[in-house]
Amino acid sequence: MSPSDDNTAARVLPDFIQTINKYGKNCYLWMGPTPMVLIMHPDLIKEVLNKNYIYHRPNISPVLRNLVSGIFLCENDKWKMHRRLLNPAFFSEKLKLMEPAFMISCYEMVSKWEGRASREDYCEVDVWPDLQTMASDVISRAAFGSSYEDGRKIFELQTEQAMHVTDTLRQVYVPGWRFVPTKRNRRMHDIKNEVKAYVRTIIEKRLKAMSVGEAKNDDLLGILLQSNLQEIKKHGNKKVGMSIEEVIEECKVFYFAGQETVAVLLLWTMILLSKFHYWQAQAREEVLQVFGRDKKPHFEGLNDLKIVTMVLYESLRLYPPVPNLTRQTVEEIKLGHMTLPPGVMLSLPILLVHLDTEVWGAEATKFKPDRFSDGIMKATNGKHAFFPFGGGPRVCIGQNFALLEVKMAMAMILQRFSFELSPSYAHAPFTSVTTQPKYGAPLIIHKL
């Protein structure tokens, strides 16, 4: 299987593929006692994502709550409040303050690769763990600033927690099993408490510094705390803003969503460019035109990278970080020709919609970044058929953060290296919350 292959969907969403092949696009399947309807028509997808007040996120496994919480699980007024308080951290002027965090972490990664390739001007590197480390370092620095080392410890714990959660979810579900004091269950409980303790300590230190005017508030945590304090002051009521517990949960979301999304987008982009050398050369030429070979990339220049942006969009189309979104009806509703009672699950299979030949043409499974040369609306003919970050009011709040970080990393990589697939590379994408490489991503990296 190659990195741009129509069998990718069969590996990532095999149950959906089998059901669609048997019954067609307009079908449903049972998830235990709950019916799940597949929604693949762009107009219906747009309606579901826009009407978040009647299509909620379904309840998730209590085990998964060890990783995902905060704004992910909030609904209605509570979600509106959290979103309003989080928004300022992701404004463009705030993201510019985090440029040093992006730069330092990316530089550490490419310097490591340069060191490994110094003897023969090339080397084989499994880039997957390095991309994960880089993305986690960016989040640690961007989220906690001067408390970066404490942030790294939190990431290490969350990484271990993700492994335990993934392994647990792959086992046969037994009601109440999470309460049995197995070694893994005890460890997951301990990690949850350790992470809370670390984050609480960082928050309390920051609040103390803010109270005496010693905090810069130029990282995600500082901006969130400042936004929260302003909300409380505005209403004169501490019950209006977020509690410390809620701030802790949002910090955990920063880690999980920020690190996972960036790492997998960078990974599949590098793998695709390793196969399609023409587009790698085009992207590098653009980077060198904007920044030269030695100049450090900067945010203003990153916004001028049209070809790199096209490549990233095409990578997101073929390998969306999360291949499927789910929603659940909270009341009886009419969706298209269907009348759905409350409690019905709706599946929005992002990957399958991204590969739908009715939208993208006969070459929907092919890597063709130029389909985005005139933007997303032109590429989709105005249809809501490209939604790697979700859509509607609940669209991913950190998508601009993620795209800027990935552009920064790709610019620094393309300035210094060319790369190709190693003979040992085995293309085996699989879903572990996000779409990841089962056997890593060994590439041959050449110094320029």
From TrEMBL:
Cofactor(s) the protein needs: heme
MF (Gene Ontology): heme binding; iron ion binding; monooxygenase activity; oxidoreductase activity, acting on paired donors, with incorporation or reduction of molecular oxygen
Name under which the protein is recorded: Cytochrome P450
InterPro entries (alphabetical): Cyt_P450, Cyt_P450_CS, Cyt_P450_E_grp-I, Cyt_P450_sf, Cytochrome_P450_Monooxygen
Pfam families linked: p450 (PF00067)
Record's subcellular location: Membrane
Entry's Gene Ontology cellular component terms: membrane
Sequence similarity: Belongs to the cytochrome P450 family.
SUPFAM superfamilies the record matches: Cytochrome P450 (SSF48264)
Entry superkingdom: Eukaryota
Keywords: Heme, Iron, Membrane, Metal-binding, Monooxygenase, Oxidoreductase, Transmembrane, Transmembrane helix
Primary location recorded for the protein, binned into one broad class: membrane
Binding residue positions for heme: 396
